[in-house]
Design goal:
Six copies of one chain form a homohexamer. With 230 residues, the first copy, chain A, is an alpha/beta fold. Chain A has one domain: Acetylglutamate kinase-like (Carbamate kinase, 3-Layer(aba) Sandwich), CATH 3.40.1160.10. Chains in contact: A-B, A-C, A-E, A-F, B-C, B-D, B-E, C-D, C-F, D-E, D-F, E-F. At the B-D interface, helix 4 of B face loops of D. The structure holds adenosine-5'-triphosphate (ATP) (5 copies), cobalt (II) ion (6 copies) and magnesium ion (2 copies).
Amino acid sequence: MHFNPSIVIKISGKFFDEDGSRNISSLRDVVKNLSSSFRVAIVSGGGSNARKYISMGRDLNLSESYLDLLGIWASRLNANLIAFALGDIAYPVVPDSLEDFIEKWSSGKVVVTGGFQPGQSTAAVAALVAEATNSSTLIVATNVDGVYDKDPKVYKDAVMLKELTINKLKEILENSQSVKAGTYELLDPMAMKIIQRSRIKVIVMNYRYISSLSDLIKDNKNIGSTVIPE
Amino acid sequence: MHFNPSIVIKISGKFFDEDGSRNISSLRDVVKNLSSSFRVAIVSGGGSNARKYISMGRDLNLSESYLDLLGIWASRLNANLIAFALGDIAYPVVPDSLEDFIEKWSSGKVVVTGGFQPGQSTAAVAALVAEATNSSTLIVATNVDGVYDKDPKVYKDAVMLKELTINKLKEILENSQSVKAGTYELLDPMAMKIIQRSRIKVIVMNYRYISSLSDLIKDNKNIGSTVIPE
Amino acid sequence: MHFNPSIVIKISGKFFDEDGSRNISSLRDVVKNLSSSFRVAIVSGGGSNARKYISMGRDLNLSESYLDLLGIWASRLNANLIAFALGDIAYPVVPDSLEDFIEKWSSGKVVVTGGFQPGQSTAAVAALVAEATNSSTLIVATNVDGVYDKDPKVYKDAVMLKELTINKLKEILENSQSVKAGTYELLDPMAMKIIQRSRIKVIVMNYRYISSLSDLIKDNKNIGSTVIPE
Amino acid sequence: MHFNPSIVIKISGKFFDEDGSRNISSLRDVVKNLSSSFRVAIVSGGGSNARKYISMGRDLNLSESYLDLLGIWASRLNANLIAFALGDIAYPVVPDSLEDFIEKWSSGKVVVTGGFQPGQSTAAVAALVAEATNSSTLIVATNVDGVYDKDPKVYKDAVMLKELTINKLKEILENSQSVKAGTYELLDPMAMKIIQRSRIKVIVMNYRYISSLSDLIKDNKNIGSTVIPE
Amino acid sequence: MHFNPSIVIKISGKFFDEDGSRNISSLRDVVKNLSSSFRVAIVSGGGSNARKYISMGRDLNLSESYLDLLGIWASRLNANLIAFALGDIAYPVVPDSLEDFIEKWSSGKVVVTGGFQPGQSTAAVAALVAEATNSSTLIVATNVDGVYDKDPKVYKDAVMLKELTINKLKEILENSQSVKAGTYELLDPMAMKIIQRSRIKVIVMNYRYISSLSDLIKDNKNIGSTVIPE
Amino acid sequence: MHFNPSIVIKISGKFFDEDGSRNISSLRDVVKNLSSSFRVAIVSGGGSNARKYISMGRDLNLSESYLDLLGIWASRLNANLIAFALGDIAYPVVPDSLEDFIEKWSSGKVVVTGGFQPGQSTAAVAALVAEATNSSTLIVATNVDGVYDKDPKVYKDAVMLKELTINKLKEILENSQSVKAGTYELLDPMAMKIIQRSRIKVIVMNYRYISSLSDLIKDNKNIGSTVIPE
Ligand SMILES: Nc1ncnc2c1ncn2[C@@H]1O[C@H](COP(=O)(O)OP(=O)(O)OP(=O)(O)O)[C@@H](O)[C@H]1O
Ligand SMILES: Nc1ncnc2c1ncn2[C@@H]1O[C@H](COP(=O)(O)OP(=O)(O)OP(=O)(O)O)[C@@H](O)[C@H]1O
Ligand SMILES: Nc1ncnc2c1ncn2[C@@H]1O[C@H](COP(=O)(O)OP(=O)(O)OP(=O)(O)O)[C@@H](O)[C@H]1O
Ligand SMILES: Nc1ncnc2c1ncn2[C@@H]1O[C@H](COP(=O)(O)OP(=O)(O)OP(=O)(O)O)[C@@H](O)[C@H]1O
Ligand SMILES: Nc1ncnc2c1ncn2[C@@H]1O[C@H](COP(=O)(O)OP(=O)(O)OP(=O)(O)O)[C@@H](O)[C@H]1O
Ligand SMILES: [Co+2]
Ligand SMILES: [Co+2]
Ligand SMILES: [Co+2]
Ligand SMILES: [Co+2]
Ligand SMILES: [Co+2]
Ligand SMILES: [Co+2]
Ligand SMILES: [Mg+2]
Ligand SMILES: [Mg+2]
């Protein structure tokens, strides 16, 4: 028996907010293309829908756990849409924990997940999934072109880094981390811890270039930022 | 052992689209009040969120089953929000079929559901739930004041009916029924069939008056339209 | 990856009542034969066993929901027998809802189901399954030779129709439909709605000719009645 | 917190074969009466329905495991009927293993089960359930009046024993045991082992006297045979 | 309806390694006593058994995810033992995720859990559980008398602190944290993040004094170290 | 479709107690080798860990059912370790009943189980699994070289039997059987009953020679004792 190498793609929840169906259509093409030579896992964020429900929940005085759960359920709705769009090559049910993911992953299909647990971002989910699938690379497709030396949405003069170490990334993100439900930035501490302990390479890229993903993976095309495990 | 009578409240998905948290807050007050003398089941529609995901799915050429499933998942997100808002008096997990509902209902808690199955509206879910809980009354809280002799959103001169038979209702709605995912009006044929065979009284009311619900139920306050089983 | 086209076979519950094992043995041969070029889903009715338990339940004053559930559990017993008889080519557990079916269907095996939900017949289940599997044809194997212009068990002079539109079928069946548990005739309104919205061709045939099924499907052999989606 | 003592009632599958609804109606009255002072678990056999499906399965060359599973599914259909008949005092879902039983039992409701596993009778299930619920007594309601010195269906001169030890019972049953699916007599070795190791008193009685069960339990009324743990 | 306040007790896995049954017997007495005025959740660590299986897994070259899962399964074995020992007041099944915990918690019983997910300690589980149950206090029962200014197992001159802020604790533990499976110390970053965002008071105490726990909680008896949310 | 023949390997719980990782490493090599020509199921015992938890449970006055459940959970921990060690060729979740096993087995992967139910040994589980998979042979790998004419751990002069009938084995083991949790010897009555009714050949061997297993199976190498079905 021969098994293809695995790869994990983390899709920003913002992906669904505007031009959602066109974005997903591009993702579908890329994943179909990749799935002949890779086993693919996809993790979807919650986006504006997550934020909307978390905000209603906050008005209703729910505690942080339940706010995070609303964000998780919103991300699962996105994950369902991707899974249904992929059709027969994808597992048609979204797992709700890492153990559940592992069981569904054993089917040999593409598995699409949303959030798993309060207290962690979907980036942490992606890192856990990358570790459990022995993936050497985790793609983070988000709404900026890569990792900058400071938050590019705040600082006009932020400079993008083609390559950086995980420790450098930790240092950069340290200040921007918030612990409130729905507000984790890029990668939260859990994500970073997993990436580090299992030495997973992270590529941060803009989801606008999602259709170049198979070039990036197969031909090492120069897109986004690469975070080196050490 | 003594068991309180049961009542089912079907909440329009539009309830969440505008002033969502204020609407839910009113619902929470009413349900807490009711739950001392009634066992309460709540069924939530999908609203604009359902329509948004169904529309993306349609762009992606999904079949009707999967479009309905997207609407169902959107309604479950709404149902989760209500369940979490109700706190300890509600069962904290949303059932995904009538059998699952029956099991969770046996806990004695308020149970909140979204959709169950492609091919039927959440109004059909509400009718099934009313039948399985032996409820004599089903409240349908929607965005019009009651049942009109024709669609009030289309015809300015539509006249609201304080009381009508189920057969009259069938006749009125017959023309407006569509079979496409996410487009069922008020009550679909499945809902009507269940209501009829188990002789369940339906009250259609505007969700703007949701805070008067306990008056309506306990004191027979004159709100909305009453559909008589026969 | 290449996927075979899908086909759905709805087996009457009466199939098990007399010569059950011989009938199933024929079905097994046909399905084994078909399964090299088709993905096959099978939906089993409840038969006399369903009627027996529903009748006991009615004596005990159960509500319609629970009577339907007894019929559903009886149909699942039949479904189990078929699944076990098919051995390794079939999924060994009977799904209990469409979502559950979809998950088990992703295994690539033949999936056998009984009923899903109160308020609908196993013919509705078959239609839902045909839609979710993108099947273009649904075979209904029952105890009459096809669709007649009126009920052939009641009217001696009923004439069988080799081909008819779904609207013609609706018109014919309209009067014979009952809403009581266990009494749906041939195709209920839910089945018809699904067949219509997804334009699924239905072939109604006598299960006595089940061993000719692969001829029918592969060589278009002239058996039973064909219901044209429009 | 105070917990009522537990009692387990094992109902023969033959109970459903003739006068089924009248028998269940009597059982319902007795259990409602008992449930104010006892926690009640009910285990149902498979009866003629089990034998019918096992016989079809045998014609189809299924192995013993799958034949037993058919009998188990038939007994679950019976268990569902009892559970639905009991209404709100019963847990509405039939457990499928002892672990599942233990979870549902923690609800505080009457729990009704059928078979659990191939290779053992529903009497073994009843013994396992009695042990897990710390019941001191297991009632076996069957179609003979009690334990006889030899099989009363075979030997006209069999003598009923008002009281006997478990070892005496073992000796009597030893010869009549068969290992084929669906043919276990009264109590199989697994049942006997559990009863012995946990010193559970067994009362074997005719289900025709089921309406006297609460007299038997509460007032020690003299019915059937009592098997003393040692 | 009135609900008692909730409290969470995190039990070190070392609790089971020596005098296990005596320790659990004390815990049982305390929890029975507490459960009249508190709702109690218990989280159990993995102890030497976790370390043994993780070490075997490491010899076999398993990745960190699977090593953590072995530790989780070891902690669930401990959790089962506690749950069984508590009998009817406890939920008899150990949940495997926070969502599962929330469902079981709604039963009103004591719920006992082990680990939930790779990448986090059972102390993080305890913090998540405290947040989801709106507990204002989390008890951490471990093998040292409280929080010291440095690791008391390493430094003879470590000084115990009766009271400290969460930020002070973070500072103290920062250096001792490891990311390898099975090696988290006292509280890991996830635990600290949850405690902080939901302002949960943590009391670290020696499990040798577990029988004084109800005095501690009810009468504010002076045991261990108190970590103030801010 | 062609299916490989199935084989079941029962691994003593003692396998994990000493040199655990080396033993598992050998087992992994053998199973990888076998899995090209056989479908393999593995059943793992509980070993010293089971005995430790059962002994704590007994100190705490748990009933036999719960003691057996502790042993079952200990055996599942062992089963998890084997499943994780096998990686992609194994199903990553341990089933908890025969029905659950059958579902997971349909995946086509190696399935690893621990115990299923109180009242029976893991050898009974292995026999049930062998029957459900239509295996003609069951390998029992334990800590003695085969079946002796009396217990070799007690009697120095015990003589090993290269071949014996199942009835001879019954006779030998009859006296050594105990009904207490965790104390079943070699094969319990349930195991023997299943083996007999489905005519399964049993080979008892020392797990020290586990690396010769594929020689034994493929080349009929002369190891251990063979128990002939009749
Ligand atoms: N140094 C940095 N480099 C790049 N982006 C940064 C940096 N610091 C902060 N960010 C912010 O991180 C954001 C991306 O992370 P964010 O978590 O908001 O989105 P996401 O995870 O892709 O989507 P979602 O959480 O909705 O699924 C960017 O929009 C950017 O503003
Ligand atoms: N005769 C009628 N009387 C009242 N409303 C009618 C009638 N005919 C059509 N309608 C339409 O039914 C609508 C309410 O049903 P609809 O299914 O759209 O909402 P809902 O079920 O409350 O919400 P959702 O489906 O989003 O959960 C009204 O807005 C109205 O336009
Ligand atoms: N126009 C018609 N043409 C053919 N059959 C009809 C027609 N009208 C009514 N029927 C009845 O439909 C019956 C078949 O449907 P029915 O639902 O009873 O069986 P089934 O679905 O095959 O089995 P089951 O419901 O037991 O699974 C026929 O026996 C016939 O009497
Ligand atoms: N500053 C400190 N104060 C107290 N304990 C400390 C400190 N720093 C490190 N420790 C260590 O933390 C240990 C307790 O945490 P640890 O995670 O080992 O045990 P646990 O969580 O109780 O058990 P388990 O992880 O096995 O369930 C102590 O034995 C002590 O050596
Ligand atoms: N006649 C016999 N021949 C062989 N072994 C016997 C015989 N009688 C008793 N035994 C005992 O059976 C033991 C093996 O069975 P046992 O159930 O203890 O281990 P296991 O099933 O391999 O492991 P575990 O139950 O821990 O999973 C041997 O160690 C031996 O002492
Ligand atoms: Co994010
Ligand atoms: Co609607
Ligand atoms: Co029918
Ligand atoms: Co029997
Ligand atoms: Co720890
Ligand atoms: Co053993
Ligand atoms: Mg589920
Ligand atoms: Mg289960």
